[in-house]
Write a structure and sequence with these properties.
By secondary structure, this protein is an alpha+beta fold. Helices cover about 40% and strands about 25% of the residues. The longest helix is centred in the N-terminal third of the chain and has 29 residues.
């Protein structure tokens, strides 16, 4: 009698789980993405992009300052750049503590004059929300494209969150760099007009970038801690070996020494260090 009863109980539990998932899916489909919620301060402003044939402007560009306790200043600026001044694109990976499968990723665009502009793609959380991988499957968060200074993005992780931070050069042609930047600007502008939902599997920080580069699907776009290794294997991150590229990309301690620098001095010092490491 134990066998049939256990099987029946298992079937009932499975039915309950399926029903719960179906209910959650229906509820998620019934919701509409919005830009007018009470967001966390860092995610409070929807980025606006103005484009011209020869350049663009983005506002706001987040440029917060941090110490180990959290934000010490909350500054937002407008930044304008010429497309002709685009020099390089850098891929940043921030491993998440406790798992080598999870990481946050974002990009830094380098322009002439040692200027950097960063883009991080985030689950846009409301003031009382934490982040959950599970809830991210069910339209719990809107999608946010946040343009920010390199100082903000890197010190937030290395200084405030105390996370490791890796900055890799991307081996792209000039046409590929411009195409990537242009597509991400257009996606930012589209979100301003038509909000979308974040999704843990299909619209996260890494696969949104992959879509903009037209890379074929790969499991590392979900298990994002492996995304740097995948880009290396595709030849998009240069180096004699992945171990060598990974070691040279570790700027965690260096960033902490720059925490008190203003944004432009931070950019120049960081780029100088990255170029030194890339020189054979």
């Amino acid at each position: 009698m134990v066998g049939p009863m256990s099987a029946g109980a298992a079937m009932r539990r499975a039915a309950i789980i399926v029903l719960a998932l179906a209910t959650a899916a229906l509820a998620a489909c019934a919701t509409t993405a919005r830009n007018d919620r009470q967001w966390l301060p860092y995610l409070a402003h929807t980025a606006q992009v103005a484009r011209a044939p020869d350049g663009f402007a983005v506002s706001p560009v987040i440029d917060w300052s941090y110490d180990a306790e959290g934000p010490t200043a909350q500054t937002r600026t407008l930044a304008a750049f010429s497309f002709a001044d685009l020099r390089n694109v850098w891929f940043v990976l921030e491993p998440q503590p406790g798992s080598n499968l999870a990481a946050h990723t974002f990009l830094l665009f380098e322009f002439s004059g040692d200027r950097l502009l960063g883009l991080t793609i985030e689950a846009r959380r409301e003031a009382d929300e934490g982040y959950s991988v599970w809830r991210g499957l069910w339209n719990a968060y809107e999608l946010s494209y946040v343009w920010a200074s390199a100082r903000d993005l890197l010190t937030r992780r290395a200084v405030y969150l105390r996370h490791e931070t890796f900055v890799y050069p991307l081996a792209l042609s000039q046409e590929q760099k411009l195409t990537l930047l242009s597509r991400l600007l257009e996606r930012t502008r589209a979100l301003e007009e038509t909000p979308r939902f974040y999704n843990t599997l299909f619209s996260n920080c890494t696969n949104e970038l992959a879509k903009a580069t037209s890379l074929p699907w790969h499991h590392s776009f979900v298990f994002t801690g492996a995304s740097d290794n995948h880009l290396f294997r595709r030849g998009l991150i240069p180096g004699a070996s992945f171990e060598d590229a990974h070691a040279r990309a570790d700027v965690t301690d260096f960033i902490r020494t720059l925490n008190d620098e203003p944004a432009h001095a931070f950019d120049a010092a960081l780029l100088g260090e990255l170029r030194r490491r890339e020189t054979p």
